[in-house]
Design brief:
Layout lengths: L18 E10 L4 E4 L1 H10 L2 E10 L4 E7 L3 H14 L15 H10 L3 E7 L2 E2 L5 E7 L6 E12 L1
Antiparallel strand pairs: 1-8, 2-7, 3-5, 3-8, 4-7, 5-6
Length: about 160
C-alpha cells in the first residue's frame, strides 16, 4: 500500500472549451525512420492561441505512425527501429507484397504503434515531459508524403 505522503497533485483548473481548431500538417519523409514533429506541433499550438485543452494528432496512413518517445539519446530511436524490424521482418513470407517487401511489415508496425496521439495543453504549452518528443515513424523504405491532422479542442485566447 502506498503512503499518502508520496502522492500529490495540483489544484484542478477548469475553463470553458470555446475553441476547436484544425489543420493538416504535410511531411515529406526521407524513408524509414523517425521524424521529430515537436517544434512544428508547438508552433501550431502557439499560432492557434491555445491556452488549455487537448491536442489530437491523427496520421492518415496505414504504413506510417505516430509516437511520443525519448528525444535525448538517438540510440533509443535506433533500438526502437531494430525492435520493430524484429517484430515484423521483411522476410517473414507475407502474402501481401504488391507494393514491395517492406509494405506488409510497415502495416504491422503501424498496427503495433499508434495512428493518433493526444497531448494536453496547459498555459499554452504542450505538456510533454523533459525528454519526450512527438515523432512520425515512417515504416516504408522509400520517401513518402504523409498527412497528419492536428486538432486542438479547448480554451483559446
Amino acid at each position: 500500500m502506498t503512503s499518502s505522503k508520496s502522492i500529490s497533485r495540483t489544484a484542478p483548473s477548469a475553463l470553458n472549451a470555446n475553441t476547436v481548431v484544425s489543420s493538416l500538417l504535410t511531411v515529406q519523409t526521407s524513408g524509414r525512420g523517425f521524424v521529430d514533429l515537436s517544434a512544428e506541433i508547438a508552433r501550431f499550438v502557439k499560432d492557434v492561441a491555445a491556452i488549455e485543452g487537448m491536442l489530437t494528432l491523427f496520421i492518415r496512413h496505414t504504413s506510417a505512425s505516430l509516437t511520443i518517445q525519448e528525444n535525448a539519446d538517438p540510440s533509443v530511436l535506433r533500438d526502437l527501429t531494430a525492435a520493430l524490424d524484429q517484430l515484423a521482418p521483411e522476410d517473414a513470407g507475407w502474402s501481401h507484397d504488391t507494393e514491395g517487401p517492406d509494405d506488409m511489415p510497415a502495416h504491422v508496425k503501424a498496427m503495433l504503434t499508434m495512428t493518433s496521439l493526444q497531448v494536453p495543453v496547459t498555459k499554452g504549452e504542450l505538456m510533454l515531459g523533459t525528454w519526450q518528443a512527438i515523432y512520425l515513424i515512417e515504416h516504408r523504405a522509400r520517401p513518402h508524403r504523409r498527412e497528419i491532422v492536428l486538432q486542438f479542442v479547448g480554451a483559446g485566447a
